[in-house]
Amino acid sequence: MRLPPEKKSKIDALWDRFWSGGLSNPLQSIEQMSYLIFMKRLEDMDVLEQRRANATGKAYISIFEGHEECRWSEWKHKSAEEMLKHVRDVVFPFIKNIHDGEKTLFSQHMKDAVFIIPKPSLVQEAVGIIDELDISGQTSDVQGDIYEYLLSQLATAGKNGQFRTPRHIIRMIVELVDPDVNDRICDPACGTAGFLFTAYRYILKKYTSPDMVTEDEEGDWHGLIGDHITEQNAWDKLHQDTFYGFDFDSTMVRIALMNMVLHGIKAPHIESTDTLSNQYSGEEAFTVILANPPFKGSIDKNDINDRLTLGTTKTELLFVEKMYRMLEIGGKCGVIVPDGVLFGSSNAHRDLRKLLLEKCQLEGIVSMPSGVFKPYAGVSTAVLIFTNGGNTEKVWFYDMEADGYSLDDKRTPLDRKGDIPDIIERFRNRREENPTDRKGKCFYVPAEEIKANNYDLSISRYKEIEYEEIRYEKPEIIIEKIEELEGKILGNIAELKRMLNQDL
Questions:
Q1: Burial (Cβ within 10 Å: 0-12, 13-18, ≥19) of residue 152
Q2: CA dihedral 25, 155, 6, 251 (to 10 degrees)
Q3: What's the confidence (pLDDT) of residue 143?
Q4: CB atoms within 10 A of CB 402
Q5: Which residue range or ranges hold the N6 adenine-specific DNA methyltransferase N-terminal domain (predicted)?
Q6: Could you give the CA distance from residue 271 to residue 249 in angstroms, rounded to a whole number?
Q7: Which of 43, 245, 264, 378 has the fewest C-beta atoms under 10 angstroms from its C-beta?
Q8: What is the pLDDT of residue 377?
Q9: Is 167 in contact with 216 (CB distance < 8 Å)?
Q10: CA–CA separation, 366 vs 432, rounded Å?
């Protein structure tokens, strides 16, 4: 992300203040930071809408009408004690009930939210830093980067198989699936909504004049204005009926909403629900699903959604089946799964793979190295790309060896891209290339061969390893060389002893 060093240092300072102020849980901290940022952005957005109304001659009723004391500019200069009391007792209840409880970007998920910053000095310092960040004065790109940099600290809070997906891996999957402006895009385990806002940025990139788009050293895109989207109804759909996310953690939902808003999506549909359980009753037919669902989780057998038929409680299997059932015919999915999904021997594992081959077009599998999710998880993973409907004739495999970062716990940037550009290019050209050399990085495997191998989808089952023959010298020659070397060593030792005796 292209974030100036001075802004990174301010965000680092914000984290330090929260840590020293007693809020050491990253998830808890980012939630409280989000509330303060939202308070700032609410006034910014109100001012912008007022200017637009003035320019067009339309009437506009301020969101702060009757509540002028809730404007950021009205209370940001208060003393520490006054500020804490005002934010806790006046401003926070206001944003929880904004528009009298109407469904808005944030308020519908704020019912159970609690403002828990305990120290007046911490509130005052946090408000000062957020004000210095000048979020309203930044482009939507920078606003999004600011929040993404804040979220980068959430990786330390991973639990129960939940951890943030590296941003470059998200971009790779989005490019492989290739969402478009008319799609309805869903992440059924959305976390902080990384896949959703990246899909939004990818669509904008597709519809922005090429000379306007730049790419930073991390591969992220900038200058995305979508100038080729010329119809207002297309923009309305993009902002109001394109992005859907679900997560069982209400805190994550609130964070995801904030993330989407700061990336320019005005009305995302983010709901607090467990899509694997009976509490999810949605019948939406999505055209694109992008996800990295929790690994190694389980769900109560009695709570499993009635539409799921695999006969297992393992979430990594149930989520893939759920994505298949949430897709309309012709809809495409890109999902990260642990390697065990590809070769597990249980009936549920086999049935899922059979479903992917016989009820879907399993288009590609990218096998990723185990270090991709370090230092928070060392599990080997793969990306599945499949389309709902039809059946699979052959599966394209790619053996990713490098993602542009070291595969140890430090994850040091190398070239920041690794095999990813090659993966995207070769996946797009796979039909023309029709690769069959199983000694190469990518190749096709016929579906019939996979079925004959108990539906095993692990790349190691099909990849051919080319061993280079090494010729060694005969043993007697090696012995002669060792004896010769030993003689030289003994000669050198004797010479050293002689020199030492001379000195004495």
A1: middle
A2: -50
A3: 66
A4: 16
A5: 8-123
A6: 10
A7: 378
A8: 67
A9: no
A10: 19
Residue that has been written with the tokens 């308070």 in this structure: 39
Instruction: Give the per-residue pLDDT at 376.
Output: 64
CA distance 182 to 185: 9
H or E stretch at 457: none
Q: Can you give the pLDDT at residue 332?
A: 98
Contact between 440 and 419 under an 8 Å Cβ cutoff? The reply is no
C-alpha 397: how far from its chain's center? 22
Beta carbons within 10 angstroms of residue 481's beta carbon: 11
Q: What's the one-letter identity of residue 91?
A: V
Q: How far apart are CA 312 and CA 389, in angstroms?
A: 23
- The pLDDT, as a whole number, for residue 267 is 76
Predicted confidence at residue 158, as pLDDT, reads: 44
**Distance (Å, whole) CA 189 – CA 215:** 28
d(CA 186, CA 244): 5
Cβ-based burial of 174 (10 A; exposed 0-12, middle 13-18, buried ≥19): buried
Rounded average pLDDT per 10-residue block, the chain, 504 residues: 76 86 82 87 82 78 91 95 96 79 62 88 93 72 70 54 74 97 95 92 94 85 88 89 91 84 78 90 88 86 91 94 96 96 96 97 96 77 96 97 88 87 97 95 97 96 79 82 86 83 68
| Cis omega (within 30 of 0) for bond into 375 | yes
Residue that the structure tokens 């109001």 belong to:
240
Residue at token pair 């808890």: 28
Cross-strand partners of 214: 222
Task: Please name the amino acid found at residue 48.
Answer: L
d(CA 471, CA 473): 7
Q: Which of 372, 407, 375, 389 minimizes the C-alpha distance to 168?
A: 372
Alpha carbon distance, N-terminus to C-terminus of the chain: 68
Q: What is the DSSP string of 340-369?
A: HHHH--SHHHHHHHHHHHHTEEEEEEEEEP
